[in-house]
């Protein structure tokens, strides 16, 4: 029984291998694969052919965006200068009060020195 199964399997394999490339299903699959490969290569060729135009368009877009940014930000140096000027004026205006407060905190209250000194030292 085992010998007969091996013979049948051998005959089937022989038929399969002999049919090989002559099989219409196999030929259709190979043709489909070849068509898909050709379509993919055509798409890649079209993409590569358009690449210089895409690069030019991207370069123009970057230049336009840069010009827009420059135009939109021309007021920034003047605004920054104004903000710094106002900050220095505020500092000059509030400086005497700040100095007095710093001096008051440094001097402290000498009446409480006996209670405060141990906390500072230890």
- What pattern of helices and strands is seen along the backbone? HHHH
Which structural class should the secondary elements be placed in?
mainly alpha
Gross morphology is elongated
What is the straight-line distance between the termini? 103 Å
How would a textbook summarize the main sheet?
A: none
Fraction of helical residues: over 70%
Radius of gyration: 44 Å
Unreliable spans are: none
What is the arithmetic mean of pLDDT? 83
Commentary on this structure:
By secondary structure, the protein is an all-alpha fold. Among the domains are: 23-74; 75-107. Helix content is 89%, strand content 0%. It contains four helices and no strands. The chain has helices at 2-19, 24-72, 76-107, 113-121.
Outline the fold blueprint.
Elements lengths: L1 H18 L4 H49 L3 H32 L5 H9 L1
Q: Features of this protein?
A:
single chain, 122 residues, mainly alpha, 4 helices
State the gist of this model.
The chain is mostly helical. 89% of the residues lie in helices and 0% in strands. The protein is built from four helices and no strands.
């Amino acid at each position: 029984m085992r010998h007969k199964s091996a013979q049948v399997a051998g005959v089937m394999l022989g038929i399969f291998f002999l049919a090989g490339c002559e099989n219409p299903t196999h030929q259709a699959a190979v043709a489909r694969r070849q068509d898909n490969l050709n379509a993919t290569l055509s798409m890649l060729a079209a993409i590569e052919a358009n690449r210089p135009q895409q690069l030019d368009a991207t370069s123009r877009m970057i230049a336009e965006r840069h010009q827009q940014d420059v135009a939109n930000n021309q007021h920034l140096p003047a605004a920054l200068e104004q903000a710094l000027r106002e900050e220095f004026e505020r500092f000059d205006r509030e400086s005497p009060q700040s100095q007095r407060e710093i001096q008051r905190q440094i001097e402290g209250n000498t009446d409480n020195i006996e209670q405060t000194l141990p906390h500072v030292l230890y």
